[in-house]
Amino acid sequence: MSFDCISCGACCAYSETWPAFIGDGDAAGIPDELIDFEHGRMLCHGKRCAALVGELGRRASCSVYANRPLVCREFQSGSEDCISVRRSFNLPVA
Ligand code: SF4
Ligand code: SF4
Fold first, then answer.
1. Ligand 1 in contact with 8 (CB < 6 A)?
2. What tens digit of pLDDT does each residue of 9-61 get?
3. Most C-beta atoms within 10 A of its C-beta, which of 32, 46, 52, 59?
């Protein structure tokens, strides 16, 4: 099972401490104003990653998609975590 991430964006807006930079060179290519240098992660506004654009649950995208951090690349649509996050926003999971 997988979901259309373009009409979701939930995993980019569910935690003020995610995504953290865990991979080598994770910040490469990401504008400084979108980075929380103190904590080594993407800057978040509340729980929403500063790189997320659009309307959650309708049309969302990542403004640094080509350079997004490793944890974002590894987050799989349709995974247990994905389903859990979608549920938290009352988005369909079936
Ligand atoms: S929560 Fe799942 S469906 Fe939504 S954007 Fe993230 S990976 Fe895609
Ligand atoms: S960097 Fe992009 S893919 Fe990762 S959480 Fe932020 S908006 Fe989502």
1. yes
2. 999 999 999 999 998 899 999 999 999 999 999 999 999 999 999 999 999 99
3. 52
75 lines ligand 1 (CB under 6 A): yes
Residue nearest to atom 2 of ligand 2 (CA): 62
Q: What is the pLDDT of residue 24?
A: 87
Position 36 in a domain? yes
Instruction: Quote the CA–CA distance of 82 and 13 in Å, as a whole number.
Output: 12
Residue 26 makes CB contacts below 8 A (sequence gap 6+) with 69, 70
CB 93 within 8 A of CB 8: no
- Separation of alpha carbons 45 and 48, rounded Å: 5
Q: The domain containing residue 54 runs over which residues?
A: 5-88
Measured between alpha carbons, how far is 52 from 10 in angstroms, rounded to an integer? Answer: 10
The amino acid that residue 47 corresponds to is: K
Q: How many domains does the chain have?
A: 1
